[in-house]
Amino acid sequence: MEHRHDRRVACELSVELFRAGVSIGKATALNISNEGAHIRTDIQLKRNEMINVVFLDDATLPGWPVRERAIVAHVEDGHAGLWFGRIET
Q1: d(C-alpha 1, C-alpha 3), whole Å
Q2: Would you tell me which of 6, 58, 74, 75 could form a disulfide with 33, CB atoms 3.0–4.6 Å apart?
């Protein structure tokens, strides 16, 4: 069931993922919103784990963080959904 409140914007941004402050590898964000992102990755992620996402591409906008905490919402073969933990109203 879809629970998004914000429209996701298609993109292809390089990100680096961190677990407990240690880099676990790079991935590609395929779409993004204030609420979360869908990434392409072969990194072994676990549903509901907390990770940090660092945006490597120089694509930030005013007010958009370079680093964001995320909860892994779902994991599929080669893909994962991340939730940034807030809902903009």
Answers
A1: 6
A2: 6
